């Protein structure tokens, strides 16, 4: 659903503006997330329970298709000249802080209620907490102005009638570049953060509540580092800094997963912190790089489609492939090899990306 949401919401973003669509996406995602908290369970509703959950997840993904790329486009179009990397880094900072908050809520709920109550009804609390959060987000976003670049575009041009068609006819190389980099970025996020949670709790049998706290601390640490790397990419260039991140993934993931498997929660925390170090690099520099590949006229649609397609391949398909590989080989390091492969593919794609850090947005 993410590319579909990207197409629909991207088209709206060209017509009614970035700000208006970002109001729509935060409401849509927040309401859908909160709705999970009131769903019936299979014991009372039978097959309807998982079908309703699937429907809500599809709605979430539809709005997610226009959310992060819309935010990245908005920030890039509003940032001062020569500082798009620094300001663009705050898009994934929000994601990282949100992830840390999510892990914190799960950790608090789990520790306060205990396993039995958490399984019975406590799992609803984190989802229901999305309702007040979406209200706060809506009020904050309602106060922001339209992006500078889009305002200038509106003064001189009409929005494209078929933005996606224009993207493919005039900007296919940019689509392919963003798709490949997004693929590597999302493999890194899924293996480097999501799977590591599963790896430590399901396979290595560390306490779930403890792992929640580790993930919260790691996410906050990554958020603090992102503006530094984004700012560094303004000085050194996007390509060099992104290369550091993808090489870091390739080198660190296997030894750090092996270090986690020493049955020491202290070593596991250290390993998780180290294996996540490339994440703030790739996340913070990726979004401004994607925005710079497309002109303002089709930026929203171009980013939304290509980034979300890469997210499907890197973050959507990877969990199934990783699970299948672990089942077939019995090797818990299989997801690490997927991350290494995804990083190499991204590095190869990076060779074809023109340096855009010092160029004005088109």
Order of helices and strands: HHHHHHHHHHHHHHHHHH
Bin the helical content.
over 70%
CATH architectural arrangement = Up-down Bundle
Shape: globular
| Poorly predicted regions | none
What's the CATH superfamily, by name? MFS general substrate transporter like domains
Say how many strands there are.
Answer: 0
Q: Within the CATH hierarchy, at the fold level, what is the topology?
A: Growth Hormone, Chain: A
Give the strand content. Answer: under 5%
Radius of gyration: 20 Å
Find the structural class using helix and strand composition: mainly alpha
Number of self-contained structural domains: 1
Membrane topology: Multi-pass membrane protein
Transmembrane segments: 20-43, 49-75, 87-115, 121-140, 174-199, 211-229, 241-259, 265-282, 303-326, 332-353
Pfam families: MFS_1, Sugar_tr
Domain Major facilitator superfamily (MFS) profile: 1-358
Key words describing this protein structure:
single chain; 362 residues; mainly alpha; Growth Hormone, Chain: A; 82% helix; MFS_sugar_transport-like; MFS
Could you explain how this protein is built, in words?
The protein contains 18 helices and no strands. With 362 residues, it is mainly α. The chain has a single domain, classed as Growth Hormone, Chain: A (Up-down Bundle). α1 packs antiparallel against α16 (299-316), α2 (18-36) runs antiparallel to α8 (130-142) and α11 packs antiparallel against α12 (208-236).
